[in-house]
Amino acid sequence: MTRKFLIAALALLALSLPLIARADEAAIRKNLAVRLPEAFSQIDQITPTPMTGLYEVRVGTDLFYTDAQGDWLIQGDLMDTRAHKNLTEDRLNKLTAIAFKDLPMQNAFTIVRGTGKRQLALFEDPNCGYCKHFEQGLQKISDITVHVFLIPILGQDSTVKARQIWCSADQGKAWQDWMVRGIKPMGSADCDADALQANLDFARKYHITGTPTLVFADGSRVSGALPEQQVEQRLSK
Fold first, then answer.
1. Are residues 107 and 204 in the same domain?
2. Using one digit for the tens of pLDDT, what is the confidence trace for 156-212?
3. Which residues span the domain enclosing 127?
4. Starting from the edge strand earliest in sequence, which strands make up the sheet with 213-216, in order?
5. Does one domain contain both 105 and 152?
6. 51 and 113 share a domain?
7. Residues 21-75: pLDDT tens digits?
């Protein structure tokens, strides 16, 4: 094989790859929609993965993996063992990132410690045990502004407590009294609490399904009660 022939063959292969990818995408869309219409009638995106022959199928923020014909379907984490990376997790983090400027701050109350120069937003339920544990550790972090979005997702009592806290004259104090010191909110729940429903709608839109959910100033988010040392590290970046 001459050098010129090899170069021409490689160039032809490079030109044909996008056509192959488009043909695979069309086959995947068609076959999944026909075979599993309840889940794949509307596919948002199909992209090749780093694994040869494996494609990512995205429906909203749900990720699936399939072959070039949509004959086999996998739901789970795709791991890069060489780089020790969870590719599915990385992808979901990008899909679900929330720009800090897009947070509806009018539906949160704010707690400031020290200079307040570092920003953190929290989505929490007043009856969430993990949130209470997290709030205990958060007391050790200074120079921070915390924006608390109440999302009562754990039942009717959560809604009652969330309304009592939201309707308090000092929302931040009522919140910390309950979450940190165990003093039940006793105030009236009779005020304009439309912010709570707005927070639930926002959480649904951005697939915030658990509490606490943390959103940092760079838009990254974490589900779960991070130890205060890890919160400090992220805030100090």
1. yes
2. 999 999 999 999 999 999 999 999 999 999 877 789 999 999 999 999 988 888 999
3. 100-235
4. 109-113, 144-150, 118-124, 213-216, 221-223
5. yes
6. no
7. 677 899 999 999 999 999 999 999 999 999 999 999 999 889 999 999 999 999 9
pLDDT digits (tens, 9 = 90+) for 61-114: 899 999 999 999 999 999 999 999 999 988 987 888 889 999 999 999 999 999
- Report CA-CA distances (Å) from 39 to 43, 61, 182: 9, 13, 44
Q: Which two tokens stand for residue 129?
A: 């045990």
Residues 64, 62: Cα–Cα separation, whole Å? 7
Alpha carbon distance 61, 72 (integer Å): 20
